[in-house]
Write a structure and sequence with these properties.
The complex is a heterodimer. By secondary structure, chain A is mainly alpha-helical. Chain A has 25 helices and six strands. In chain A, the strands form three sheets. Chain A has a two-stranded antiparallel sheet. Chain B is of the alpha/beta class. Chain B has one domain: Alkaline Phosphatase, subunit A (3-Layer(aba) Sandwich). In chain B, the strands form five sheets. Chain B has a nine-stranded mixed β-sheet, with helices on both faces. Chain B has a three-stranded antiparallel β-sheet with strand order 1-17-18, with no helix packed on it. A two-stranded antiparallel ribbon of chain B has the order 3-4. In chain B, a hairpin with a 2-residue loop joins strand 17 and strand 18. In chain B, helix 7 crosses helix 8 and helix 8 runs parallel beside helix 9. The chains are: A mainly alpha, B alpha/beta. At the A-B interface, helix 17, helix 19, helix 20, helix 23 and helix 24 of A face helix 5 and helix 6 of B.
Chain lengths: 484, 419
C-alpha cells in the first residue's frame, strides 16, 4: 500500500459535510483530552482566524497530559472491561499505562510486556494485570482474551469445536494459542508474597478433540494462526508468544482497527473481535493503508492517532459525524468542567467514600475528591465487569442519577467559580452564550437564545434556580451525552 | 431450524428500554413470542428459599420412618395429599397448586448450585446463561408496563444486578430492591413544578438535536428518562405506609412476608418477573427447630398470596414458582441437621398455565431417592416457559451467530402439571 493510495482512501472517506469548528473542538478535546473544553477555550478557538487552527489544536492536545490520561482510560476499559481490583492494584496499572502513552512507547512493546510480564520485576509487574486480573490467570481466558484483543478473533466457540458459523475459526487455532499459555499459573511468590504469573516446565504438545467427535484426537504445538508450529520452548513460552504475536500481521491490523474504533465509534472491522473472511472491513484499502503505516512507523501510537483524527472521516459533520457515547470517565470530567466544579473536587480533602455503599443507600458519605467522583460515575455509567463498552447502552439508572443525585444538583447551585454563579453575573444574550459554550461547546442559535430568555423571564423561584434548571437540561440532553 | 427474523433485537424499541440498555450482546431469534401470546401479559413470581428448604418438612413429609423427623403430616385441601404440619395455611390451598415431589438435580454445593439451577443448568456452550428472570425479560418484555421487567426483592442492599443476565447483556439484569426499598435515586431531587420545567427544556434540546443527528441515540436516551419518570411516579409501590393492617397480619411483618406482599403489588403494577429471595434455609444444624421457625414465614404469606392472586383473577396470568437450589438429606446428621440433597426434593408451582391440585413424582418410602418421574431443573425451565406461552423448541437466543437453546434441548416440560 503506497502513501498515495492511503491518501486517496482517506479522501474518499471525506465526501460528507465537514464538522463546524465548534463540533470539531468538542470532539477532539473529548477524544484526545478526555473532557469537553471550558467556555474560555471554546470562545478563543471559535474566534481564532487561523486556517490551520484544527491542526494546531490536535498538536496541542496530543502534547497535553490529558492525552495520556484519556488513552490510558480508553484502553483500560477496552482491555480490562471494568474488571477492577484483583492482584495488581488498579492504580499501578493506570500509572504504568499512562506513562507508556505519555512517553509514546511503541505499541508492540507495550503489548509485549502485557503478555510476557510475570511479576518478578517491579517495573513490569503492573503490565501483568491484563492476564492476571483481566483473565484471572486462567489459561483458557487468557487464550480467549489474547485472541480477541490482539488478533481480533473471538475464539470462544473454538475452545470445544470449530466455530459453527465462522469457517476461519478452528479449534486447532485456539489450541495452538492455548499451547503457549497452558503452563501459566497465577500464584503468590513464596518469598516476596507478591503475585507472579509463573510458567511451569514444558509439557509437550496439547492434545484435544472436538466435542462433536471426542474419539478423534488431535495435537498441536504452540502456534499462531497461519504460522508454523514452534518447538515447545523449554522455558517462558509467553515470552516467545509475545514476540511472535506482535509480529503477526493480524496484530497490527487489529490494533489499528481498535484505535479507529476509539475515535470513530465503530471499527472498520465490526464487531471488533470478529475479523474473518466472511466479515470484511467496511474499507479494506483504508485499513490496509493504516496498518502498513502503523508498522512502518514502528507502532507509533501518537502518530496513528494523529492520522486518524486528521482524516476527513473524523472531521465529518452532521449526520455523517462519528458518534459515540461519552465514557463514564469522559462524562465525569465533562460534567465537572461544564458546571465549573473541577477545581472544587480537585482541592477537596479525601474522605472515606464508597460508591457501592453510596448507591445502595447504606452510606451518606458523599463523594468529595476527583477520584471519588470518577469512582461514582464509573459505578453508575460503566458496564458490568466483563462487558465490553461498545455502542450506546443507556439505562434508566443513568437517567435517575442525573435527575436526582444530590452531588449533581449541588454542582448546579451557585458557588464561587461555578457555572450558575458565572451566568448569574451576566445579562441578556451573554447568559445564553456562556451557558451553551460551557455545556455544549457551541454558540446558541436564535431559538435557543429565546428559550433561555423565556425560561429566565417566567421563573418564579429566582434566577439562580432557573439558571440551574437550564444548565441541567443541557447536561441531561442527548447532545451532551454523546461525542459527535 | 427456521427463524422468523435474523435481526438484532428486533422487538426492542426505546419503549422497551426500561432499566435498560440499548444494543445488547445477545439477540433473540423467536417467532414473535410476544405477539403469539393471547390477551393478558403473563407474568412470573419466583420465590427463592436460598440454602435449601427441607422437602420433608414441607411438601413431601415422611412421618414415622428413620428419617421423618418429629413433625406430622396433615391432610390438605386435595383428598389423599398430605403435607407437613408446618404448612397449616398452605395445606388449605393445595387445590390451587401443583407439587413436584421428584426433583433430581446435580450440584450439592450452594456456590455452584445456586447459579446453575437459576440458569437452568444449560449445556456448556461457552457462555454464561441468563437467570430465569433475565431470560423471561428478554423473551417476553414489551416494555408497556413502564416498569423494569425483572425486579428482585431481597434482604440487604439494593442495586442493579447485571450479572444475572449472563450473555444477554446487562440491560436484562435484575433491579434489586434491598428489603423492598427502591433505587436511591428514585427520590426526586427537585419539586414537581421544577421537574416539569427542566424536563420540558431537556426535551426541547433533544428535539433540536434530533433534527440534525437522527433518532436512534435520542430515542434511547429519552426512553431512559421516560422510564425513570414513570418509576418515580410509582413511588407508592414502595410505600409501606399504604399497607393495610389486615394485609400486614396476613403476610406477616417479617422480611419474607413483607417482601411477598411487595411482590404482589409489583405484579399488580405490571412487573413482568418478580423474584423474592429469602436466605437462611441452610439448616445443617438443628433442622427441626429451624424449620419450626422458618416454615411459618413462608406458609402464611404464601397462602395469603395465593388467596390474593386468586381473588384478583391474577392466577390466570401469573405463574408462581416456589423453590430452592436443592432439598435436604433425609438422613439426620449428628447435629440434628439435614445437609444438602439434590437427589430427591420438591418444589411447587401455581397459576397461569399450571394445573391446579395436582401432585407429580414420588420419592422412595424413606425419601432418599426419586421413585417415579425424576425431573431436573431443565424440565422446570421448560414448564415455566410453556406456562407463559413460550415454546422452547422453537425459540432460540442468538449469540455471536450461534443459536442457543433457551432450555435444555434434551429435556421437556413436566406435562402432568401443565394445564
Amino acid at each position: 500500500m503506497s502513501a498515495l493510495a492511503l491518501c486517496l482512501a482517506l479522501l474518499l472517506q471525506g465526501e460528507a459535510p465537514r464538522a463546524s469548528d465548534a463540533e470539531f473542538l468538542r470532539r477532539a478535546t473529548l477524544d484526545l483530552g478526555g473532557t469537553i473544553p471550558g467556555s474560555d477555550e471554546a470562545r478563543a478557538f471559535l474566534a481564532d482566524p487561523d486556517p490551520a487552527k484544527r491542526e494546531k489544536l490536535v498538536e496541542r492536545l496530543l502534547a497535553s497530559p490529558g492525552y495520556a490520561r484519556r488513552l490510558e482510560q480508553a484502553v483500560t476499559v477496552m482491555f480490562l472491561e471494568r474488571r477492577s481490583g484483583g492482584k495488581i492494584p488498579d492504580r499501578q496499572w493506570s500509572e504504568y499505562l499512562r506513562k507508556a502513552f505519555e512517553t509514546n512507547e511503541p505499541w508492540d512493546r507495550i503489548v509485549r510486556s502485557m503478555i510476557a510480564a510475570d511479576g518478578r520485576e517491579d517495573d513490569t509487574r503492573p503490565a501483568m494485570k491484563l492476564l492476571a486480573d483481566g483473565a484471572g490467570g486462567d489459561p483458557n481466558r487468557m487464550t480467549r482474551d489474547i485472541s480477541r484483543l490482539f488478533l481480533g478473533r473471538d475464539l470462544l466457540c473454538a475452545q470445544c469445536h470449530d466455530h459453527p458459523n465462522v469457517k476461519d475459526y478452528k479449534q486447532a487455532e485456539y489450541m495452538g494459542l492455548f499451547a503457549f499459555l497452558n503452563r501459566s499459573k497465577l500464584q503468590d511468590d513464596p518469598k516476596t508474597k507478591k503475585p507472579v504469573l509463573v510458567e511451569g516446565a514444558a509439557a509437550g504438545k496439547v492434545e484435544f478433540a472436538s466435542v462433536f467427535s471426542p474419539a478423534k484426537k488431535h495435537q498441536t504445538a504452540p502456534k499462531l494462526p497461519g504460522n508454523d508450529e514452534v518447538d515447545v520452548p523449554a522455558s517462558r513460552p509467553r515470552e516467545l508468544l509475545a514476540e511472535r504475536l506482535v509480529r503477526h500481521p493480524q496484530f497490527a491490523r487489529n490494533s489499528v482497527n481498535r484505535f479507529w474504533f476509539l475515535f470513530m465509534g465503530r471499527g472498520l472491522v465490526h464487531p471488533l473481535d470478529l475479523d474473518h473472511r466472511g466479515n470484511p472491513p467496511s474499507d479494506p484499502v483504508l485499513l490496509d493503508g493504516l496498518t502498513a503505516g502503523f508498522v512502518e512507523s514502528g507502532f507509533d501510537v501518537r502518530r496513528l492517532v494523529r492520522t486518524i483524527v486528521s482524516s476527513p472521516a473524523y472531521g465529518r459533520g452532521g449526520r455523517a459525524a462519528p458518534s459515540k457515547p461519552l465514557s463514564a470517565e469522559q462524562l465525569a470530567w465533562s460534567v465537572l468542567t461544564a458546571t465549573g466544579s473541577l477545581e472544587r473536587v480537585r482541592k477537596a480533602p479525601a474522605g472515606k467514600f464508597s460508591a457501592g455503599k453510596y448507591l445502595s443507600g447504606k452510606s451518606a458519605e458523599p463523594p468529595r475528591t476527583l477520584d471519588d467522583v470518577l469512582q461514582l460515575f464509573v459505578d453508575v455509567f460503566g458496564n458490568a465487569p466483563g462487558e465490553p463498552e461498545v455502542g450506546f447502552q443507556p439505562s434508566m439508572t443513568h437517567a435517575l442519577f442525573l435527575m436526582n443525585d444530590r452531588l449533581v444538583l449541588d454542582w448546579l447551585r451557585p458557588f464561587e467559580g461555578g457555572l450558575v454563579s458565572r451566568l448569574s453575573g451576566r445579562s441578556g444574550d451573554a447568559v445564553a452564550e456562556e451557558l451553551y459554550l460551557s455545556v455544549l461547546t457551541r454558540m446558541p442559535d436564535a431559538e435557543e437564545r429565546k428559550e433561555v430568555a423565556a425560561a429566565l423571564g417566567r421563573s418564579g423561584k429566582g434566577r439562580d434556580v432557573a439558571l440551574g434548571e437550564l444548565a441541567w437540561a443541557l447536561i441531561a440532553s442527548t447532545e451532551f451525552r454523546m461525542n459527535h | 431450524m427456521s427463524y422468523a427474523c435474523g435481526g438484532h433485537d428486533h422487538a426492542i424499541s426505546r419503549r422497551h428500554a426500561l432499566g435498560l440498555l440499548a444494543g445488547a450482546a445477545g439477540g433473540l431469534l423467536a417467532p414473535n413470542v410476544a405477539r403469539a401470546l393471547r390477551s393478558k401479559q403473563r407474568q412470573v413470581l419466583m420465590i427463592w428459599l436460598d440454602g435449601g428448604m427441607s422437602q420433608l418438612e414441607s411438601w413431601d413429609p415422611k412421618p414415622g420412618g428413620d428419617f421423618g423427623g418429629p413433625f406430622r403430616a396433615i391432610p390438605s385441601s386435595v383428598p389423599g395429599v398430605h403435607v407437613s404440619e408446618l404448612l397449616p395455611f398452605t395445606a388449605k390451598r393445595v387445590h390451587q397448586l401443583a407439587i413436584v415431589r421428584s426433583m433430581q438435580t446435580k450440584d450439592n454445593s450452594h456456590s455452584v448450585g445456586v447459579g446453575r439451577i437459576q440458569r437452568g443448568d444449560p449445556v456448556n456452550r461457552g457462555v454464561e446463561y441468563p437467570y430465569m428472570g433475565s431470560a423471561i425479560a428478554k423473551l417476553l418484555d414489551k416494555g408497556d408496563s413502564g416498569l423494569p421487567p425483572y425486579v428482585l426483592i431481597k434482604p440487604g442492599s439494593s442495586g442493579f444486578l447485571a450479572s444475572d443476565a449472563g450473555f444477554l447483556g446487562g440491560r436484562y439484569g435484575a433491579l434489586a430492591l434491598g428489603d423492598g426499598r427502591p433505587p436511591v435515586h428514585i427520590q426526586g431531587g427537585v419539586d414537581a413544578e421544577l421537574e416539569d420545567a427542566r424536563q420540558a427544556l431537556r426535551r426541547s434540546a433533544d428535539a433540536r438535536y434530533r433534527q440534525g443527528r437522527g433518532d436512534a441515540d435520542v430515542d434511547a436516551w429519552e426512553g431512559c428518562y421516560d422510564s425513570a419518570l414513570k418509576l418515580m411516579r410509582r413511588k407508592e409501590l414502595f410505600d409501606e405506609t399504604t399497607v393495610t393492617r389486615s394485609e400486614r397480619e396476613r403476610y406477616g411483618s417479617h422480611p419474607l412476608g413483607r417482601h411477598l406482599l411487595q411482590a404482589r403489588r409489583l405484579l399488580e403494577a405490571g412487573v413482568l418477573f418478580v423474584k423474592v429471595s429469602s436466605y437462611h434455609w441452610d439448616t445443617h444444624a438443628d433442622n427441626f427447630a429451624m424449620h419450626q421457625e422458618l416454615m411459618p414465614q413462608i406458609d402464611r404469606p404464601f397462602a395469603a398470596l395465593i388467596d390474593d392472586l386468586e381473588q384478583r383473577g391474577m392466577l390466570d396470568h401469573v405463574v408462581v414458582l416456589l423453590m430452592s437450589e436443592f432439598g435436604r438429606t433425609p438422613k439426620i446428621n449428628q447435629r440434628w441437621g439435614r445437609d444438602h440433597w439434590p437427589e430427591a426434593w420438591s418444589l411447587a408451582l401455581a397459576g397461569a398455565g399450571i394445573k391446579r391440585g395436582v401432585v407429580t413424582g414420588k420419592t422412595t418410602p424413606d425419601g432418599s431417592a426419586v421413585a417415579e418421574n425424576p425431573y431436573d431443573i431443565g424440565h422446570v425451565f421448560h414448564t415455566v416457559f410453556r406456562a407463559v406461552g413460550i415454546k422452547p423448541e422453537e425459540t432460540f437466543y442468538k449469540h455471536n451467530g450461534q443459536a442457543l437453546a433457551i432450555a435444555r434441548d434434551d429435556m421437556g416440560p413436566i406435562q402432568e402439571v401443565l394445564a
